[in-house]
Write a structure and sequence with these properties.
single chain, flat, 292 residues
């Protein structure tokens, strides 16, 4: 009878389980983001406080001429704290006046963006169109927005379409010119690749031309939206009705300078918001290539 030999092979050592890597703490990341936010927010806030302090010190509590920040607060406290009231007619809070102006800018600027991009592509891709139209665009873009208002009133006979036309005609020139520059600056390698691949005009537009010109287009759109906001405020002063421009003019006629200063703050913040909105959209569409 045989018995199996016992095996004395060395037992395989079992490696201890590797400790899990420690989870990264969120505290340093939150601290870093807080420092970045503070570096962006605190300097303009301090500058604003210094300006307000100087303004208050220079003007004082005089009730003639420009009101001091303290007087602006005392005289326009209701306008600042209640921007959403609506008593009908033109007796509305600043939010509704700005909202009405924004709707006009949205319509007029959208039309100018579509027409401007298409015209810019045409002018940039056609040498003869560029030679014939570009000098005219360069002249027309220097015409002030309010100079178009009499022509628009004569053509449309109504305030609303006249305001939309002024926005359209003011915003379209930088969009056309920047789009045309972008089309002319498409790298020749891209064009050669399109020829080798025999892309159709539609494929060339969406796969080559549009991605290559997106940073230029959004540069024109940012300039255009800023000019649209300037044009609507100026034109509403003359056209009347609900709108931030008419509100400023109406308060001037009523000698309420404090309300005008509050309205100007709304105009500035709204213009800044529109600019950042278009810049953010361009950043996403161009995947970071557009200037933000």
């Amino acid at each position: 009878m045989t018995y199996p030999k016992p095996s004395f092979a060395a037992a395989t050592a079992v490696a201890p389980a590797a400790p899990h890597p420690p989870k990264p703490s969120l505290l340093p990341e939150l601290e870093r983001r807080a420092k970045n936010a503070a570096a962006v927010v605190i300097p303009p806030l301090l500058t604003l406080l210094v300006v307000l302090a100087l303004w208050q010190a220079l003007v004082g509590d005089s009730y003639t001429g420009l009101p001091s920040p303290k007087q602006v607060w005392l005289e326009s406290k209701d306008l600042i704290l209640h921007p959403f009231y609506d008593n009908g007619g033109v007796d509305k809070g600043l939010f509704w006046h700005v909202f009405t102006s924004l709707k006009r800018v949205g319509i007029g600027f959208s039309i100018s963006a579509v027409c401007g991009i298409l015209l810019g592509v045409f002018v940039g891709s056609n040498r003869w169109a560029h030679r014939g139209l570009d000098p005219i665009f360069q002249v027309l873009r220097t015409v002030p927005p309010l100079a178009w208002l009499p022509i628009s009133l004569a053509a449309f006979h109504q305030a609303q379409p006249s305001a939309l036309f002024v926005i359209f005609i003011t915003a379209i020139w930088p969009i056309i010119i920047n789009t045309a520059v972008g089309v002319r600056n498409i790298p020749s390698d891209y064009v050669n690749v399109a020829r080798v691949l025999r892309l159709s005009p539609v494929e060339y537009f969406f796969k080559i031309l549009l991605p290559a010109t997106t940073p230029y287009i959004f540069t024109g759109l940012r300039i255009g939206i800023g000019m649209s906001w300037l044009a609507i405020v100026a034109s509403e002063m003359l056209l009347g009705g609900v709108g931030i421009g008419f509100f400023i003019w109406d308060q001037y006629n009523a000698s309420r300078i404090a309300d005008i200063i509050v309205a100007l703050a709304w105009v500035g913040m709204t213009g800044f918001f529109l600019d950042r909105l278009v810049a953010l959209l361009g950043h996403f569409v161009s995947r970071g290539n557009a200037v933000s």
